[in-house]
Amino acid sequence: MTIQWYPGHMHKAQKEIKQSLPNVDIIIEVIDGRIPFSSENPLIAKLRGDKPCIKVLNKCDLADMDTVQLWQQFLEQERTVKTLAISIHDQAKIHKLPELCKKLLPQKARSVKKMRAMIVGIPNVGKSTLINVLAGRAIAKTGNEPAVTKQQQYIQIREDFLLLDTPGILWPKQEYENSSYRLAVTGAIKDTAMEYEDVAFFAAEFLKQHYPDRLLDRYSLDKLPISEMDFFELIGRKRGCLYSGGRVDLTKISEQFIHDIRSGAIGPLCLETPTMVQQEIAEQEQKNVKKQAKKANKNNTKKHT
To answer: Of 107, 131, 143, 302, whose CB is crowded by the most CB atoms within 10 A?
Structure first.
């Protein structure tokens, strides 16, 4: 199952971003350091073309930094892209952003005109909090849920640097099923648009394979059960997530499990690697080819009947 969530205001925001792009010098795209591929909006890449871009890998206090560094190397293979891995707790690093923008555009940096940067990102990647740190004041509305910012606004960061804040936008159709689950795990998709149990089972399967020691430590287990259902039955009883008859409340323990991931209680982690994502892209391309071939055969059959 692919989880979809695309409120109407996001379509409007996408059109406004397209209209404003010619008026800015550089793009700052904020992505989640735990899911750099899944939290990249493919529409932004299409809209910006060759315009320079700094990809800010945010929430790195919650991320596995060894994997984050792999992602930085991977992303910077694109000529016009530079990366910056940050945590909202490292404000000195955040304040390097304007200078990094100028390094990417040395001619603009020497100009008397103000540099204009557009900051973009999907919902709930910490874009507004980042803006408030840069501005040194609470100017962008923040919240621990997606789709808080609703409209564009210019913010003066320094005398020579303007920042255009934009609403967080997803894209109309999520092509990669695993990416939609990763977005749900990290909170980029509203909880009302997903089933906690479904998302928790996906996350548990991944963590059992890639971070088993973290699960053992967090839930005081001697060994991990083979199935995800047995895992949630076990930790549900440990946490007291039970109905009156003693049966495990699967929704409640799933919600707690997702919260543990989002808050960092399980430890720093990444839910995808460059190698993993490249494989998923190749598999999806094969599916698309087969789907197109099947559709073509069906159309040919109709023509001859």
So the answer is: 131
The predicted-structure confidence for 226-236, as pLDDT tens digits, reads as follows 999 999 999 99
On the 0-12 / 13-18 / 19+ scale of CB atoms within 10 A, 253 is buried
* Residues sharing a CB contact under 8 Å with residue 44, sequence separation 6 or more, in sequence order: 17, 27, 29, 120
- Work out the mean pLDDT of the chain and round it to a whole number: 86
Sheet order of strands, 161-165 included: 81-85, 53-58, 26-32, 115-121, 161-165, 153-158
What is the model's pTM? 0.85
Q: Which residues, 6 or more positions from 114, have their beta carbon under 8 angstroms from its beta carbon?
A: 159, 160, 161, 162
Rounded Cα–Cα distance for residues 153 and 163 (Å): 8
Token readout for 56 is 């800010």
Work out the burial of residue 264: count CB atoms within 10 Å of its CB; fewer than 13 is exposed, 13-18 middle, 19 or more buried: middle
pLDDT, residue 3, reads 47
For 143-169, the pLDDT digits (tens) are 544 444 456 788 888 888 999 988 777
Gap between the Cα atoms of 249 and 233, Å rounded: 9
Per-position DSSP letters for 28-76, written without gaps between them? EEEEETTSTTTTS-HHHHHHHTTS-EEEEEE-TTSS-HHHHHHHHHHHT
Helix axes 250-263, 196-210, angle to 10 degrees: 50
**Angle formed at CA 88 by CA 82 and CA 89, multiple of 5 degrees:** 120
Amino acid letter, 136: G
* Residue ranges of E strands in 126-264: 153-158, 161-165
